[in-house]
Amino acid sequence: QVQLVESGGGLVQPGGSLRLSCAASGFTFSNYAMRWYRQAPGKEREWVAFISSTGAGTNYADSVKGRFTVSRDNTKRTVHLQMNSLKPEDTAVYYCNAVGFQTWGQGTQVTVSS
């Protein structure tokens, strides 16, 4: 029932930007805080960003602070991750997740390479 669909990934050069989107359905989106995670080959899934249910509160991993911005549109049931000044170390599959559910989408691949 709970469904999360990530999109917006792709191949970008170092220093470039991408805007990821996560479309949610099957639950009352506005009641839930949301998180972004990423997973690189051979590594565990890593928390990247948090946004409260209203969008008023955000938090970021130290590795992305100052470069990434998370936002949400509760009317459209969508959360976004604006990724600027991308580095090769940001290469990973990016996932969104609702706090309170152990449900993950298929993820979207981000590759940062020249």
Structure explained in plain terms:
The chain has 114 residues and is mostly beta strands. It is built from no helices and ten strands. The chain has strands at 3-7, 10-12, 18-25, 34-39, 46-51, 58-60, 68-73, 78-83, 92-98, 108-112. It is globular, with a radius of gyration of 13 Å.
Alpha plus pi helix count: 0
Based on CA atoms alone, the radius of gyration comes out at 13 Å
User: Shape, please?
Assistant: globular
Question: How large a portion of the residues is in β-strands, by DSSP E?
Answer: over 45%
Low-confidence stretches: none
Average of pLDDT: 97
Within the largest sheet, what's the order of strands?
2-10-9-4-5-6
Major sheet details:
6 strands, mixed
Summarize the structure.
By secondary structure, the chain is mainly beta. It has strands spanning 3-7, 10-12, 18-25, 34-39, 46-51, 58-60, 68-73, 78-83, 92-98, 108-112. Strands 2-10-9-4-5-6 form a 6-stranded mixed β-sheet, with no helix packed on it. Strands 1-3-8-7 form a 4-stranded antiparallel β-sheet, with no helix packed on it.
Element layout with pairings:
Elements lengths: L2 E5 L2 E3 L5 E8 L8 E6 L6 E6 L6 E3 L7 E6 L4 E6 L8 E7 L9 E5 L2
Parallel strand pairs: 2-10
Antiparallel strand pairs: 1-3, 3-8, 4-5, 4-9, 5-6, 7-8, 9-10
Keywords summarizing the entry:
114 residues, mainly beta, 6-stranded mixed β-sheet, 4-stranded antiparallel β-sheet, globular
